[in-house]
Amino acid sequence: MYNLKSTSSYEMTLKKEQDSDLTEFAQVPFPLPEGWEAPPPPPPPKYFLLNNRIINGEKIASAGEKVFISPHYDYGLAREDTQATGVEHVSVTQSSDGSGPTFTVPWDDLG
Prior knowledge:
The protein is α+β, with helices and mostly antiparallel strands. It has a domain at 46-109. 22% of the residues lie in helices and 22% in strands. The protein contains 3 helices and 6 strands; from the N terminus they run ααββββαββ. The strands form 2 sheets. It has a 4-stranded antiparallel beta sheet. A hairpin with a 2-residue loop joins strand 2 and strand 3 (58-61). The longest helix is centred in the N-terminal third of the chain and has 11 residues, at 9-19. The chain is elongated.
């Protein structure tokens, strides 16, 4: 990552900054002043299902049931369903804290 032919420390620092994607800084939490507490993370967006969600013949969720957008990576399942059906999908969960099993639903089925 460093340009070893550089003679000035400024050139070496500049080269390192150009090559860095700053992920090393993103992983270090910013220190809060003494006595301060970090606010809790915001809850995931809440929606209601407009239609029953049936997957492989099994009813996963009922119309009118509360679901939450999953804050976790879904391994490309929503994208895959979107490509397969031509209708945009999103991964949701029935747990208000965003945990638990997820399933995909079309955006049009959320209200």
